[in-house]
Specification:
The complex is a heterotrimer of chains A (254), B (93) and C (315). With 254 residues, chain A is mainly α. Chain A is built from eleven helices and no strands. Helix content of chain A is 66%, strand content 0%. In chain C, 69% of the residues lie in helices and 2% in strands. A two-stranded antiparallel ribbon of chain C has the order 1-2. The radius of gyration of chain C is 22 Å and the shape is globular. The chains are: A mainly alpha (254), B alpha+beta (93), C mainly alpha (315). Chains A and C meet through helix 1, helix 2, helix 3, helix 6 and helix 7 of A and helix 3, helix 4, helix 7 and helix 12 of C.
């Protein structure tokens, strides 16, 4: 570890990177299969933004670690148990409503969180937030509008959107429950705690669901585990795809 | 099942320039049309401002009337600065 | 003006290199030919997303993953520009998609071959995009304005595609023996289908003569194919890969590379729907469209509701 960097900061950079890569990868799975050409292109744009952000975090993590690992080592050579993304982002695409529910719940957290990260005393994080916050502002606008369209569209779309929301609901709170590495950074004032995000996040979700004529799910269940490497069974399959080349042909340049 | 309406997209590449027609796309409403235009037509930093107009609201001159529409302007050479002889000594005018 | 006068005035414009625009008078056959060609071209772009799409999730580095995603996305964009160009002639995108989905419309047969290795991402970019670019550069000067403008935009964007593919292969041939073999295997599989992309030889081509007279096409299939071979052979040599054609030789007199006979039976077999991936490609497109129907309907319904609500509040 780089002498001045804390292991928590390294873990946090990886956590953010994993969130972005896993969600970007999922959106990339839509490429060529979207519901309409214009939205196929829109989803790929978001995917590319997230992969770009993931690269910034991985590069930063590699620099903090100071052991000569690269962004690709971190993305391609860590196992399922070493990935620390939140469970929400690894959920399969499902139908378009599931993709939108996952995206909206993530964006609704991601944007206010990045806004707090802009003023982090850690210059590396603040820099990444500076770029990401603009992109994610658009992501939230896009996913929010689709929640409205699907929720307040046809009977079928309303039903599908409600189902997708109900199914994603129990994964949303993990984003606001600090893992030990986050708690140490919160205590040190490097990142914001959940209380600084919560109001904004809840407000966005509540307003959007109301406008979309959707019912706020009353499911009390909360799923966590991603941040400590206990994932859904979906992640392993995704990594088998994502890491296939690096695992099948170790140590080569591509 | 029907297509989303067709929209014409106009993009200003930087401040100080006119919006220019770049193509068209489908969208359910104008907000989506602007976003789709952003996603489709500005992926390489092509713009700073977008206009969209639903294609059915564009009215065009009739190509069959091209002659009667534009013939009149063809011989009005006196509207152009090069029509007038000014000695070089006068300098730029 | 009678039909004959209209036709001769039309041909005169073409001969003087005046572009034909959407509302101009044009012979029915010109319109039909263009709708067929532009929509086939659009379908090819969209179906063309699938073979490369097959490797997006498995791209071997983050840099490659982003580049491949951006490239496949571009193909979607190009399909969109081309559908829009066809729509200026009075057909709807829905009609065009319907023709694709019911098997009435064709798309480039190259996309019915499977993408089996990472090296195929290199070969597709280098050869398939390379062949497409030959055609597209010519089409920038096509006589129909909206088609020509779409092609100009497409060519501008395509310029990174071929380089992206060639760079992938360059990395492989500089790598391990296994990587080099992967690159060679890929060239072996994609070379001949790439030459077939230019279509039947001039003698066999049914639409060519009229399309040339109308300046929809400006170079014949064989001329473009030869230009592609001439451009590509030195690039293969630079890679140190062997083009799978024992008859390939340089002709000092003509200044061209001579190549062996193309297996047109294979070409027609794939065109008729019997390639490895024909059915899968079509099924993927049909599924995406059908599964997207409720999404498109929802957006329209929402837009109408919003419009109606606005009408109520505005006096």
């Amino acid at each position: 570890m780089n002498q001045t960097a804390s292991p928590s900061l390294f873990q946090f950079a990886l956590y953010m990177a994993d969130n972005c890569l896993v969600l970007g990868h999922r959106l990339g799975e839509w490429c060529g299969h979207g519901p309409v050409l214009e939205q196929d292109i829109a989803m790929t744009n978001i995917s590319l933004d997230l992969i770009g952000q993931a690269r910034l975090y991985y590069q930063y993590a590699a620099e903090l670690e100071g052991k000569g690992r690269t962004e690709d080592d971190l993305a391609y050579l860590r196992s399922e148990r070493e990935y620390t993304n939140a469970l929400l982002v690894e959920l399969p695409n499902g139908d378009f409503a599931h993709t939108i529910a996952r995206q909206f719940l993530f964006d609704a957290w991601h944007l206010p969180f990045l806004k707090t990260m802009l003023s982090s005393p850690d210059a590396g994080l603040a820099d990444i937030a500076g770029k990401a916050v603009k992109e994610v502002t658009y992501h939230l606008k896009w996913s929010r509008e689709w929640v409205l369209r699907l929720g307040d569209g046809t009977d079928e779309s309303h039903q599908r959107m409600q189902t997708a929301l109900d199914e994603a609901w129990m994964y949303r709170l993990e984003l606001l429950m600090p893992a030990p590495f986050e708690q140490r950074l919160i205590d040190a004032g490097v990142i914001a705690g959940p209380d600084e995000i919560r109001n904004d996040w809840e407000q966005t979700i509540a307003d959007t669901l109301r406008e979309a004529t959707l019912t706020t799910p009353d499911d009390p269940a909360v799923q966590t585990g991603g941040k400590t490497g206990i994932h859904t069974e979906h992640l392993g399959h995704m990594l088998a795809d994502l890491q296939y080349m690096q695992r099948a042909y170790p140590g080569l340049e591509w | 099942m029907k297509d989303w309406p067709l929209w014409e997209v106009f993009i200003r590449s930087r401040n100080g320039l006119d919006h220019k027609h770049v193509g068209s796309l489908h969208a359910a409403d104008w907000e989506m049309a602007i976003e789709n235009a952003r996603d489709v037509y500005t992926r390489r930093n092509e713009g700073v401002s977008i206009w969209v107009v639903e294609s059915k609201y564009i009215h065009a001159s009739d190509p069959e009337e091209q002659d009667s529409m534009f013939e009149s302007a063809r011989d009005k050479v006196y509207r152009h600065p090069t029509f007038y002889d000014i000695p070089d000594e006068v300098g730029h005018m | 003006m009678n039909q004959q006068d209209l036709e001769s005035r039309f041909q005169d414009k073409i001969d003087r290199e005046v572009k034909i625009e959407a509302k101009d008078w044009m012979p029915d056959a010109y319109r039909k030919t263009l709708i067929r060609q532009i929509s086939q071209h659009a379908h090819s772009e969209v179906v063309g997303m699938l073979p490369e799409g097959n490797w997006i999730t498995r791209a071997p580095s983050l840099r490659r993953k982003a580049a491949l995603l951006a490239k496949v996305q571009d193909e979607g964009g190009h399909g969109l520009y081309l559908y829009a160009a066809a729509e200026t002639m009075g057909v709807s995108r829905d009609q065009l998609l319907d023709e694709l989905h019911t098997g009435k419309a064709k798309y480039s047969s190259i996309f019915n071959y499977p993408a089996l290795s990472w090296a195929d991402m290199g070969a597709i970019g280098w050869l398939v995009d390379g062949a497409a670019i030959m055609n597209q550069v010519m089409l920038q000067r096509t006589s129909y304005g909206p088609y020509s403008r779409a092609m100009i935009r497409i060519c501008k964007e395509e310029s990174f595609h071929q380089r992206q593919g060639y760079e992938i292969l360059l990395t492989l041939v500089r790598g391990s023996a296994e990587q080099k073999a992967m690159a060679q295997d890929s060239l072996n599989r994609w070379w001949w289908p790439s030459l077939m992309m230019f279509g039947p030889s001039d003698a066999e081509s049914t639409h060519s003569a009229q399309s040339m007279a109308w300046k929809i096409k400006r170079k014949s299939n064989d001329v473009l194919r030869q230009a592609f071979v001439d451009a590509t052979v030195p690039q293969a040599q630079y890679l140190g890969l062997t083009i799978p054609d024992p008859d390939l030789k340089w002709n000092e007199e003509t200044g061209h590379w001579e190549f062996g006979p193309i297996d047109w039976d294979e070409f027609w077999n794939v065109v008729k729907g019997n390639g490895i991936c024909n059915r899968q490609r079509l099924r993927d497109r049909v599924n995406a469209h059908e599964e997207g129907a409720w999404v498109r309907d929802a957006a329209l319904a929402y837009a109408e509701k919003k419009q109606a609500r606005k009408a109520v509040v505005t006096p």
